[in-house]
Amino acid sequence: MNPSHMSRRHWLQTLGAMGLGTALPLYAAGRPSDDKRILVVVELTGANDGLNTLVPYGNDHYYRLRPQLGIRPSKLRKIDDMYGFNPGMAGFERLFKNGHMAVVHGCGYDNPSYSHFTSAAYWHTGAPNSGEPYGWLGRLADAIDPDLTPHFLVNIDERQSLAVRAERHVPVVFDDPQRFGRKGLYQSRPLLDQGADPASATLNLSAQFLEQVAQSARQASQQVRQAWNDYKTPVDYGILSMDLPKVAAMIHAQLPTRIYHTAYRHNAFDTHVHQAELHQRLLTYVSDGVAGFMQDMKRIGRDKDVTLMVYSEFGRRPAENTSLGTDHGTANHVYLIGQPVKGGHYGQAPDLGQLNAEGNVTHTVDFRRVYATVMQHWMGADSTSLLNGRFETLPVFG
Questions:
Q1: pTM for the full model?
Q2: Which residues of the chain have pLDDT under 50?
Q3: Element (DSSP H or E) covering residue 123
Q4: Cα–Cα distances in Å, from 115 out to 144, 163, 314?
Q5: C-alpha–C-alpha distance, residues 383 and 376, integer Å
Q6: What is the Cα–Cα distance from 100 to 338, expressed in whole angstroms?
């Protein structure tokens, strides 16, 4: 395609996919919002086994379905007479007992897909079986920031998630802060690294637009690298922290970002075989990282401004398989964590004694109720219009 015939929207989407996206000076940036509330979303890719994350040890059906994989009550980090966290999740246990974690049980949707790709797309868009082109976080950004504040929406990942794809906002996308902004085709590297001569009369309109895009990307990359290089913390996030220290660095640097999405990548939680030790190790990483992040937010005085959400594209089958693992399931927990959260249990746990014909549970809470709760009661948006329907919210926020 001839660059002179490419639309500005095409360039924005292309650069977003390259990891160079950022809100551009071609739009009226407006003034940053005075609202300091931040949403951080963490995706556990590969479908985390919720039943061995928050174990229903008070339910005999659990042990009948999992004679080998079922975790014995004496090993659990019990939080009440029914549930206990996996032994490796000291951080989650502490957050729940301190009243800063809401567990939403049985989250899913009608006609569930067992495909990682398809189900993740449904969660990313908040629109199952619809073909929605934009992500729920992208639509949220468009709704609450019509002025298109630079760096409002950040995706820390190797490539842009559908969750942050927006009609008007272009997310800042990076994985390694030190190398952010330096990727690109060989032919475009001089422009991305040094930029064009602004006095050049040979630049056509498309070239001028690309130069503005590149300049904005360079500015974003400089700010992200500066925030990361300047950030020092005594808080221990554990061995693998799911990029949460990068989020903390940007919040500490007072960037105007209000929506973050990051993921524990590479389908790490797809535990079909020999699940027990691997799963506990993964959950320890998650628990330590999240607990460290919340401790860091308190240290820098931003704990009242931040809510963190943890989700996975689906749960896993209640019964263990012959390989001492678990196969693709349906409903799962969603965790909302932070000082503003009213901790406790929400929703109804699926009935382990009434499985469907495929051996899976039936969801009890449409996951869009969680999205509606976050959109409406935390981020101040109209969830009905953003989710294309009215979903009853949960009393998670004050």
A1: 0.87
A2: 1-9, 11-33, 182-185
A3: helix 116-125
A4: 32, 17, 9
A5: 6
A6: 5
